[in-house]
Design a protein that fits this description.
With about 160 residues, this protein is α+β, with helices and mostly antiparallel strands. The protein has helices spanning about 1-10, 15-20, 35-45, 90-100, 135-155; strands at about 10-15, 20-30, 45-50, 55, 60-65, 65-70, 85-90, 105-115, 120-130.
Length: about 160
């Protein structure tokens, strides 16, 4: 039991580009429907969230273009690397995501993939609004300012 908690704390796959390209409005934590070889690949850290997005179809939320590498020891049961995967959310959360997705300028972006203390894979998704070019420059400037302040206090 303690080993699972240790494994769960070590696996954290982030979409770093999302915070640069989008302004986060609201955050949700969702379970993912996975096959056996997919969860084994995630536990090995062989997943990527770059260019991943979510859609709402028929009151279900799907994550598209999420890369989970094929499991090395998988046989004919191995999964395809970029298949669509269903997200598990409650009805209220799905309704919020659906209305946000219908609004112009908003999108649903996966930010983090992790394994919780129970050994289940969870995906943190956000309702996000795209940043303009000047917003991106402002966030770069803020990040550089933080680095300067950190370096001054270290010395």
């Amino acid at each position: 039991m303690a080993a699972k908690e240790k494994i769960g704390n070590n696996i954290l796959i982030k979409n770093r580009r999302a915070s640069f390209d989008y302004e986060f409005i609201e955050t949700f934590e969702a379970g993912i429907v996975l096959t056996g070889t997919e969860i084994k690949s995630i536990r090995l850290g062989k997943a990527n969230l770059v260019d991943t997005y979510c859609i709402v179809e028929r009151r279900e939320v799907w994550v598209k273009n999420m890369y989970i590498a094929e499991y090395f020891y998988g046989t004919y049961n191995n999964h395809s690397a970029r298949r669509e995967r269903k997200l598990l959310l409650n009805r209220k959360e799905i309704k919020k995501l659906e209305t946000a997705n219908k609004n112009n300028g908003f999108t649903i972006v996966p930010v983090k993939l992790f394994i919780n203390g129970k050994g289940l894979a969870k995906l943190v998704i956000v309702i996000a609004k795209g940043k303009k070019e000047y917003d991106k420059r402002q966030s770069l400037k803020e990040r550089d300012d933080k680095r300067m302040i950190q370096s001054v206090f270290r010395k």
